[in-house]
Amino acid sequence: MGNKIELKKVYGDVFFECARDYDENVVIARWFGPQSVETVKEGGAKLLEMMADKPYTKLLNCNKGVVGSWDLALGWVQEEWTPQMRKAGLRYLAQVVPNSIYVSMTIENLIQRIGNEFEIRTFREEADAMAWLLSIEG
Predict the structure, then answer these.
(1) Which of 41, 43, 59, 75 is spaced 20 to 30 A from 18 at the CA atom?
(2) Which class for 75: exposed (0-12), middle (13-18), buried (19 or more C-beta within 10 A)?
(3) Residue 29, CA atoms < 13 Å, CB-side half-sphere
(4) pLDDT tens readout for residues 92-116
(5) Interior CA angle at 40 toward 36 and 41, to 5°?
(6) What whole-number percentage of the chain has pLDDT above 90?
(7) Which residues have a Cβ under 8 Å from the Cβ of 52 and sit 6 or more positions away?
(8) Using CB atoms within 10 A of its CB, is residue 53 exposed (0-12), middle (13-18) or buried (19+)?
């Protein structure tokens, strides 16, 4: 596993972390707490930086630690982040969803918006999401 990157809010709470699994060509991103347009953009930009540094085809995006909806950021994810990630080589997106109905609804909305850009599957546990990503050649 590569170096873990953490992003923090101004008062010190970690809202995002990511790391590259170099052996498996997978990036693992985890989100924590309430998310805003700003935090989604900041985390998304970090993933784009990682993609520019060394492209990857698989992303495990874990939302188990997220609280509340982040619907206001969906337009940016759809219009800005998704086309850039697709162009750079991302193909498979494993979404780990929490039991929270608000977060789950936001992720379902996201999948409706970008589902034709990536192969996306949802999971309750990271281990299941990783198993699916590792079962994919490439």
Answers:
(1) 75
(2) exposed
(3) 24
(4) 999 998 887 777 788 888 788 887 8
(5) 115
(6) 64
(7) 88
(8) exposed
The model's pLDDT over 8-23, given as tens digits with 9 standing for 90+, comes to 998 899 999 999 987 7
Token digits for 120? 């996306």
- SS3 for the chain is CCCCEEEECCCCCEEEEEEEECCCCEEEEEEEEECCHHHHHHHHHHHHHHHHHCCCCEEEEEEEEEECCCHHHHHHHHHHHHHHHHHHCCCEEEEECCCCHHHHHHHHHHHHHHCCCCEEEEECCHHHHHHHHHCCCC
Structure tokens at 42: 């900041």
Closest by CA position to 32, among listed 3, 11, 50, 6? 6
